[in-house]
Amino acid sequence: MDSLTPTPVTAALRLCLHALLAGLLVLTALRTAGDGTAHATAVLVLAGVMAALYGAGALAPAVQPRTRAAAVWLAALGAVWLALLALSPEALWLAFPLYFLQLHLLPARWGPPTVALTAVAAIAGFLPHGQEVSPGTFIGPLLGAAVAVATVLGYDALFRESERRRELIEELVSTRAELAEAERTAGTLAERERLAREIHDTLAQGLSSIQLLLRAAERSLPEDAPATPHVRRAREAAQDNLAEARRFVRALTPPDLHRGSLPAALTRLSSRTSAPELAVRFAVSGRPVALPTPYEVALLRTAQSALANTVRHSGARRAEITLSFMETSVSLDVVDDGQGFDTAAEPVGGESGGFGLPAMRARARSLGGRLSVESGHGRGTAVAVTLPLPAAGGRAYGYPDDAANAAGTEGRAA
After folding, report:
1. Neighbours of 128 (CB within 10 A)
2. Rounded CA separation 270/231 (Å)
3. pLDDT digit string (tens) for 182-230?
4. Handedness of CA 7, 9, 10, 12 (dihedral sign)
5. Which of 33, 250, 295, 399 is the most buried (most CB within 10 A)?
6. CB under 8 Å to 296, separation ≥6 — which residues?
7. Greater pLDDT, 395 or 159
8. Could you give the residue ranges of the DSSP H alpha helices within 252-292?
9. How many Å apart are CA 204 and CA 249, to the nearest integer?
10. Contact present, 331 and 387 (Cβ < 8 Å)
């Protein structure tokens, strides 16, 4: 008769029920023996049988709520109780612990009707004994049955609510751990991107300029000049260090971009973004062209941020990512059919550690682009970022391309 999820409260309630039935059995046996009735011995025997039967069922592992063994055990207890009630009117009180047993062990649709039948049997079994009949004879068993039903149903409702709260707390704790891990990962990736930009802006560009200036100096020196070997070795050292710096920049780019192009990374992002009843689709519009790494990083991060907001806040069933290549620009659109929000009340800072809308806008502005957000309550959300394509041999991410810088430097040196 163990509960499926034992707690100190349920253990205390079971002990109280055991004590109540044992006490009522002892009371019935003592009062019947004290009255000196002809059936005193039979009552004592039946009380002992009922106590043994109850103890066996309470200790039996097979007697569990909503099982056949529990129904058989209750039927046996009820039969012994009816026999005891036929011999002694004091057995009327044993109906009260039986109410709780029936409500606890029987299915919900059978518990209350069985309790009502037990109350009727208690009243009907009391009347033939010639005892004084009063309104309490009828009201007592019926009121006890009503109290038992209300108590058990109320406890079940509280228990279910407690279980729901426990599951919710476990889910919140798990989600908090996932968010903390995601923020740590986001911080690590953001620092990697910052270092890549710094290396690209300073070391790589400086070494490229030094290399080409030394190449121009080497060309301007006679082959047999004493400084020519030193200039050549300096140029080769600058060239080796430039290659190393470029390897650092490639190593610090987002892992998703290591395994292919930006469309491939967005396809993987769409396939692994999961939420209940959310379908994410990705499409490419126009003819894809190779983009500088900062552009790919910015577009990938914007897609990740927008999808994270969709999963956490929108309750959307469908989201679409579209990467569009145009003649002079490239754009990324993330559209969902979620609950939307009031863009006029947009928060000033991101809620997820720098991946909010302000961070996306700052990233787009740093590349000379723009970010637009269209949303409204019940109308879904559309996030669009547009970046101007760098001209051939021009600038990307606001910094001179290595090849363009090299050509310009070599021309000036020549």
Report:
1. 10
2. 52
3. 677 767 777 777 777 677 667 777 787 888 888 888 888 888 888 888 8
4. positive
5. 295
6. 253, 257, 261, 262, 265
7. 159
8. 262-272
9. 9
10. yes
CA nearest 309: which of 335, 332, 345? 335
Indicate the pairing of strand 381-388 with strand 370-375.
antiparallel
Amino acid identity for residue 183 in this structure? E
C-alpha 317/C-alpha 310 separation (Å) is 10
Beta strands in 238-355 (DSSP E): 279-285, 318-325, 329-336
- In sequence order, what are the residues at sequence separation of 6 or more whose Cβ sits closer than 8 angstroms to the Cβ of residue 305? 350, 352, 355, 356, 359, 360
Q: How far apart are CA 110 and CA 322, in angstroms?
A: 57
Token couple for 13: 């309630």
Which of 108-112's residues contact partners 24+ apart within 8 Å by CB, and which partners?
111/149, 111/152, 112/149
Q: Which residues contact 403 (CB under 8 A, 6 or more apart)?
A: 393
- Of residues 165 and 205, the one with the higher pLDDT is 165
Tokens of 271: 């396939």
Integer angstrom CA distances of residue 377 from 23, 124, 277, 308, 383:
63, 64, 20, 19, 15
| CB 328, CB 394: distance < 8 Å | no
Amino acid at 1: M
Tokens of 73: 């055990």
Identity at 165, one-letter amino acid code:
R
Token representation of residue 144: 């006890």
Tokens 């003819």 -> residue: 287
Q: What does the alpha-carbon distance between residue 385 and residue 364 come to, in Å, rounded to a whole number?
A: 7
Any idea what DSSP says for residue 343?
Answer: G
| pLDDT computed for residue 131 by the predictor | 67
Q: Are 323 and 285 in contact (CB under 8 A)?
A: yes
> Is 92:125 a contact under the CB 8 Å cutoff?
yes
Q: How many CA atoms lie within 13 A of 179 on its CB side?
A: 14
What residues contact 143, with CB distance under 8 A and at least 6 apart? Answer: none
| CA distance readout (Å), 102 to 86, 96, 105, 112 | 21, 10, 5, 8
The burial of 296, by beta-carbon neighbours within 10 Å (0-12 exposed, 13-18 middle, 19 or more buried), is given as buried
pLDDT band at 284, cuts 50/70/90? very high
φ/ψ of residue 109, rounded to 5: -75, -20
Most confident among 12-21, 35-44, 217-226, 267-276 (mean pLDDT): 217-226
Nearest to 266 by CA among 246, 249, 241, 283: 283
